[in-house]
Amino acid sequence: MVPPASLLLMSVLGSIGMAAGSVLLLGPEDRISLTRGVWLSLLGLIFFVSLFDLLNHVALSTSVGHMFRKKYELTLAEVLDISNKTVSAVQALLSCVTGTVVCVWSCTRNFLRSSHFMSEAYAWFGAAYFFYDIWSMYRVHSSHDRNYHGCRLARLKDYLTKQPVIVLHHLFIGSFGFLVIVYLRGGLGDCVFGFVYLMELSTPFVSFRGILSRLKMKSSQLYVINGLVMLVTFFFCRVVMFPYVFYLY
Hints:
Structural class: mainly alpha
Number of helices: 10
Pfam family, one: TRAM_LAG1_CLN8
Organism: Cryptotermes secundus
Keywords: Membrane, Transmembrane, Transmembrane helix
Strand content: under 5%
Helix content: over 70%
Main location: membrane
Shape: globular
Number of strands: 0
InterPro entries: TLC-dom, TLCD
Mean pLDDT: 92
Distance between the termini: 58 Å
């Protein structure tokens, strides 16, 4: 029988591999069909869920994970939160790769009318992340709670009550934001959306900051360095970037 970790690893690598393979033969300015897009979204959902479960399995069901949890005195909730933040960082890195490809191709050609298939392809693949993350955050939230004794409806209600902004944000980005990139923009402004993808550059450092906090490493030099890098990347990718895009336009 294949161990769960191996199955999860195959699921992670297989889903991202099939997603890449389904678009690599496309020409730079090809469009993503509805069928291919739905396939990419399904693979994206499998990828993010499998990665989250793989990280949790390693942390909770292996000797290495046991030593790690013991060293840093991690609770179940903290383990799940670290896994959630790690997946968030991975998604951000994929988004930045997409943004780099799109900007290099589209921004050096016609600002409004040039396009690269990666912007639509990752919109389909990445949209699954926002719906996965609602579920993942619920898992983290539920692991904190010891008052409902297995009543899922009560836990869900409490989760939605305490996290309404982030849940609505994810629903908005995963639905309306997705529609804007894939359909509503009419194939225009690909360069702009390349920079939108690059806004995620600060996210890995934000996630790593949270992870270091969970590991009780706020007083470490690594925490300070990561915080400085986070501030710099946030400033350039969330503040300076917009005037620069206006300048390009």
